[in-house]
Amino acid sequence: MADQERPIYPLPGVDGHRFVLLPEGPERLDTLIALIDGARESIKLLFYIFLEDSASTRVRDALVAAHSRGVKVSLLVDGFGSAKASDAFFAPLAETGCVFCRYEPKRSRRYLLRNHQKIAIADGRLAMVGGFNVAQGYFAAYKSEGWRDLGLQVEGPAARRLSNYFDDIVRWSRDPRSQMEDLRSILLRHHEQDGDVRLLFGGPTRELSPWGQTLRNDLNGGTMIDVVAAYFAPYAPQLRPIRRAARFGRSRVITAAKSDNNVTIAAARNRYRYLLPEVEVYEYQPMMLHTKLYVVDDIVYIGSANFDVRSLYLNLEVMLRIRDAGFADMVRRYVDNEIVDCVRITPEDYARSQTLWTRIKGRLSYFLMSVLDYNVSRRLNFGIDGQ
């Protein structure tokens, strides 16, 4: 199917919001540039990865141009995810009066924590969320080299609320005296408990993150569940609701067949044994999968969080939860189309694949992703600031 023939997914408005689903990489980049170019008062960007290449240079230069016409520009990037981007690359922003900050620089033990969020906001009225970062690979065309990802443009009250959260998280990140307790207060204050369009946040908490708790509650009551997750390595009990829903309705899980980190592939395949045979399990083939999407009955989650231990317990994450039957139906059409590009993993296929070496590799990969990494990061996290 040629790029111009790719399907579109018109989304209904919900609770005073308008939405545009952005499944195609070039379109996401053009939408991000248009959001920056259209800003009149403020533009706020927060990205886990912001690299040095043609796409990121285009975004940076659009920010510089916005500043030159009087727009207040703020950019926050993660110190780990954007480590390969030099200070010289960001100098046109940092040296011209824009707000620029790297979250948690290397001097801190909290460097093991990640600000994994992806947010762009113009004038507190128009926003973008999703799984994509700022680098050419995240804006790649369909079936090309790069990542298959998803973005959502949001116009409405949630954009203003997201803007307020951004201001708080930038103030916390720039303050050398900031405490972990203050960060948790920010997350809990902005995490929304009511409404058809809700902002959900995650971060370094002792238990399951607030966004993860909300998802768990929705999964427990679900009968039609779709999960599209680039990194898929949750604890086994977190998979029980998905398997249970399959017995009464239908559950589908799409994970990656290829990645830039084979540990994540092996760890996900280790989890299939907790899903099969009830759950339909698929692996996306044409590109490296980077999408983070959850559909539970009439509820849709779109944002930055994978279905793995780091996203559920440690990373700073943002998810938009939208409750509307028509919205969920349209997003399921998108999932249906992604499945066309997948290979289904049957119980028989999985059994044949489980050689001694495959089982060892899967268990070791899961241990590295979900046990070792989590426990090391958690102990450092809760060993500071008196927490």
Description:
With 387 residues, the protein is of the alpha/beta class. The protein folds into two domains: 8-190, Endonuclease Chain A (Endonuclease, Chain A); 197-372, Endonuclease Chain A (Endonuclease, Chain A), CATH 3.30.870. Helices cover 39% and strands 23% of the residues. It contains twelve helices and 19 strands. It has helices at 25-38, 54-68, 87-94, 157-174, 180-190, 210-220, 240-248, 262-271, 309-314, 325-340, 347-353, 356-381, and strands at 18-22, 42-47, 72-78, 99-103, 118-122, 126-130, 147-148, 151-155, 197-202, 224-229, 232-233, 250-256, 280-284, 288-289, 292-296, 299-303, 307-308, 317-323, 342-344. Strands 9-18-16-15-10-12-13-19 form an eight-stranded mixed beta sheet, with helices on both faces. It is globular.
